[in-house]
Amino acid sequence: MKKDIILAGVGGQGILSIAAVIDYAALSLGYNVKQAEVHGMSQRGGAVQSHLRISSTRIYSDLIPLMGADLIISVEPLESLRYLPYLQPEGWVFTSRDCFKNISNYPDEDELFQQISQLPNKIAVDAEKLAREAGSVKASNMVMLGVAAPFLGIEIENLKLAIESIFTDKGQKIIDINLRSFDAGLACSREI
Amino acid sequence: MGNLLLLGAEAIARAAIDAGISGIYAYPGTPSTEITSYVQNDPEALQQGIRSNWSANEKTAYEAALGMSFVGKRAMVCMKHVGLNVAADAFINSAITGVNGGLVLVVADDPSMHSSQNEQDSRFFGKFAMIPVLEPANQQEAYDAVFHGFELSEKFQLPVMLRVTTRLSHSRSGIIRKAALHQKNLALPVDPMQFMLLPAYARKYYHQLIEIQSDLEEASEASPFNQLQINKPGSTGVLACGLAYNYLMENISEKLSDYNILKIAQYPLPRKLVEKLFKNSSKVLILEEGYPLYEELLRGFLPNEKSIPIEGRLDHVVSREGELNPDNVAMALGIKKNTTAGKEMVLTSRPPSLCQGCSHHDVFDALNAALADVENSQVFADIGCYTLGALPPYNAVNTCVDMGASITMAKGAADGGFRPAVAVIGDSTFTHSGMTGLLDAVNDGSPITLIISDNSTTAMTGGQNSSGTGKLKEICLGIGVEEAHIRMLEPLGKNHDYNMQVLREEFAYDGVSVIIAQRECIQTQLRRKKTEKKDEPLVRNCKH
Ligand SMILES: Cc1ncc(C[n+]2csc(CCOP(=O)(O)OP(=O)(O)O)c2C)c(N)n1
Ligand code: SF4
């Protein structure tokens, strides 16, 4: 078992919570985990990414090599394209369709989605809408985790247990919203 | 003990607590901040009374840690690479005095400058000070290196440097803990003159420091952190320092047998191991995460015909700048890699920006308006979130050099005849290194207008307490700024015209003015309100 995952988004969008859930599930299954994060300057609304590596054998590098990633999970469509050089030719891209426009020269949306639709393996979903229906837009990161879930090499049940553990301090209501969001994302990728 | 998933920085903090430190001293700085904040929030550390408040700057932090070591306790001091420039005086001299209780200095370098002004390599400082330096390759090794570092420090009575970089500090991995040690008892130095660097003593201690170098080298030869693997005599050798080892192994772990590898994580460089590597290899590739410090040394200054070929950063087999990664190491090894050339798209970049509602925003609006009619206006700024005022849409500030330089550069410009000489500084930067410069300006009567954009926190590094919160006006008065020219503003859109007016008045004043524009950082405010709401025990370090 070996998965190399790139998480992408904008500072403050919660990609580290996605990482925390996958980390927790992977560790509980006895896998090795390495997860490089971004702190500091770029967290101020800049582009952020995390390299997440899971393996049943020893992991050396904290960084994924170019063309080495199995998946890109992005909570923002422009950001989903930024790390394509890291993706294997047959790798998958999962992205939300919610544009985060904090820059004046944000690309034309149609062109952006056109580019995404040309990728060989991709799923783009309205993550914010699904999260809102599940109880809170803040859980759109869990929608994206749900979309990617069947591709992670980790049982769905383990991921759900991890969500419960990660959010346990926040109370049952928040856990439920995050689980519902996860399920909504999962349903999207099962449709395909 | 279970397997904890910790950032490299957190692994160091965990180890420091487990190794029985009595205190950790630091000023925040990416990528070192999380070490101290972990200790501040750790229940065991709280229960054991390990002191962990933020210091005013790296020099005060270093000296306090040295004081704790003086009385026989273990202390850790943490900073980012440029912080060691500030603490250098204390650091270099502490290598001459030596230590009593174990003292480990953690320096976090930032190759590729993810969040820094430069990518200086702290191993230079370690070599300069002639002390042992540890450079762990991974998070578990970082944890273990803290224990090893304290042992070395106490064995040789020297401060020990633990050098990490951004990738290690900000990457998580599973950590296995060791059995925790108790804090040390108070014990004064055996030699009452150990810390007395009058020349007569200093000469003696410096001589001892030189004498002990061979022992330090012996320790490196025997260190479990340095490992030599001769896999095939006559093949290519690789000398891999710190994190470089990971990128090497990422590329060759499957066909390991072909390379001779010397993994280095403890300095001074073990001469015998290096000799063995060179004797058994046809050429040697030197991989250093940072400057080509040892590559330069091993190449020598004049061409050495007898030496086998050496490759590294100096001949651009590895890029001369920036951090290593699996890809540039693969290229240096000559391992064929499909490149993605042609596939790369040009994407709109998304640089960091000020948060919506940030108080600095209103400061820059007022400042830009007040300077609108001034031809060729220049604003000397400093380091913090407000440095983003250099970018559009503000284009409000012109310099960012080192912490505190805004005030002193404005002073120099004013002394040279430039008007208005305006400086912008954050509250934490002001107390870090700005106060002494302001004293210079007051003593010289240099006409500067200093704007302290006071968001009452150290925002750039994540909102740590700022040591001057609530005291800035009194500090300026104490330094000797006239009360009539200390002006208090609230940076809000509704006060724009008034704020602009006040700035103009002070620009026109031919002396030192300080404008304190106070409004809390909205991120810090949000966090504070959340914690207050939760009514959790606050781990705050205000000294009120
Ligand atoms: C010598 C040194 N130490 C630490 C840092 C890291 N650093 C950069 S900005 C900053 C915080 C500045 O806080 P403040 O001046 O209050 O500005 P704010 O970010 O709150 O706007 C720190 C600690 C540095 N660049 N140089
Ligand atoms: S973190 Fe605070 S100081 Fe920094 S940009 Fe955001 S609001 Fe402004």
Task: Give an account of the 3D structure.
Chain A is globular. Chain A contains seven helices and six strands; from the N terminus they run E-H-E-E-E-H-E-H-E-H-H-H-H. By secondary structure, chain A is an alpha/beta fold. Chain A has one domain: Pyruvate-ferredoxin Oxidoreductase, domain 3, CATH 3.40.920. Chain B is α/β, with parallel strands linked by helices and 544 residues long. Chain B has three domains: 3-211, Rossmann fold, CATH 3.40.50; 227-333, 3-Layer(aba) Sandwich (Rossmann fold); 359-526, Rossmann fold, CATH 3.40.50. A six-stranded mixed beta sheet of chain B has the order 2-3-4-6-5-11, sandwiched between helices. In chain B, strand 5, helix 7 (139-156) and strand 6 (160-165) form a beta-alpha-beta unit. In chain B, helix 1 crosses helix 2 (33-41). In chain B, 52% of the residues are buried. The chains are: A alpha/beta (192), B alpha/beta (544). Chains A and B meet through helix 1, strand 2 and helix 2 of A and strand 1, strand 7, helix 11 and helix 14 of B.
Concise account of the structure shown:
The complex is a heterodimer of chains A (192) and B (544). Chain A is of the alpha/beta class and 192 residues long. Chain A has helices spanning 15-28, 77-82, 109-117, 127-134, 140-148, 156-166, 172-191; strands at 2-10, 32-36, 47-55, 69-74, 87-96, 122-125.
